[in-house]
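in:
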């Protein structure tokens, strides 16, 4: 069998399809199209993982989570709100506080080191993770005008020296999302 561009596209398409989280956006809730883990110490990106993790202990490599949201054109003129939900099956420990930053560009592939990095940009606020919806604290920028027609990246970062928040991106209703108000 001859290996063609069509076969390569089919293989890549199947691999991409398998990596997409099972949760799907609705007209009122946007889930990330991609969730990736980022190693703060090395700059490595683990693209489109099945688990979200925010981790910091001061002894091991810190991890943050990179999320990508696609905002459809239909959201023009509407307000959006960031929400982060955990249930009793997910894990959090330490302060369980996390900050949100915009990214200059969303993650698009895995990398083993710099320079791709996390491309952290503007601070949007702090949240306290708990069972249910995380509580916004310290300038959490909610709600905000929906950036209709745009694809935006963000980074979820642990706050203190002892933080871990761990979730299954395919658990229904769990993790980060944008709610359209």
């Amino acid at each position: 069998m001859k290996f063609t561009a069509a076969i390569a596209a089919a293989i890549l398409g199947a691999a991409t399809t398998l990596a997409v989280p099972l949760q799907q956006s609705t007209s009122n809730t946007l889930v990330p199209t991609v969730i990736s883990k980022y190693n703060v110490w090395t700059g490595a990106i683990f693209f489109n993982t099945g688990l979200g993790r925010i981790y910091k202990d001061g002894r091991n490599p810190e991890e943050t989570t990179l999320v990508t949201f696609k905002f459809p054109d239909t959201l023009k003129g509407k307000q959006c709100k960031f929400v982060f939900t955990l249930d009793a099956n997910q894990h959090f420990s330490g302060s369980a506080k996390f900050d949100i930053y915009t990214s200059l560009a969303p993650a698009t592939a895995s990398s083993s080191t710099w320079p791709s990095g996390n491309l952290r940009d503007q601070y949007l606020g702090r949240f306290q993770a708990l069972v249910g919806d995380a509580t916004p604290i310290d300038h959490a920028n909610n709600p905000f005008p929906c950036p209709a027609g745009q694809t935006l990246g963000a980074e979820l970062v642990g706050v203190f020296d002892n933080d871990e928040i761990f979730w299954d991106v395919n658990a229904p209703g769990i993790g980060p999302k944008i709610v359209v108000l």
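note: The first strand starts at residue 29 and ends at 30.
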